[in-house]
Write a structure and sequence with these properties.
Blueprint lengths: L2 H4 L4 H43 L9 H39 L1
Helix pairs in contact: 2-3
Length: about 100
């Protein structure tokens, strides 16, 4: 006897359940990847902007340091967004080319 018939499940019900579980796992993986990317961006911004803008660390930031850090963060995020869009565009183009040739 099959698992489905042992538990009174039809094959369409177990298929639907498996698809739901698969989607949930994929959503969780996407969420964790997004979080890991965010952590990496924050770490890189901290490293790059601190090295560039903070010449003498102390208990507080001077106004010029605050402005430098703010501009550095903005530029880093803008650059990251441009690179990300270009990368996604390239992946989509390559995916379409591969899909068209199959």
């Amino acid at each position: 006897m099959s698992f489905s018939s042992d538990y009174g499940l039809s094959s369409s019900t177990s298929s639907t359940t498996m698809e739901g579980r698969k989607k949930a796992v994929m959503d969780q993986v996407r969420s964790e990847l997004a979080y890991a990317n965010l952590q990496e961006i924050v770490t890189k911004i901290n490293e790059k902007c601190f090295a560039k803008c903070i010449s003498k660390p102390g208990h507080s930031l001077e106004n010029s340091e605050k402005q430098c850090v703010a501009k550095c963060m903005d530029r880093y995020m803008e650059s990251w967004n441009i690179v990300s869009r270009a990368y996604l565009s390239r992946v989509q183009r390559e995916s379409q080319l591969q899909g068209g040739s199959l």
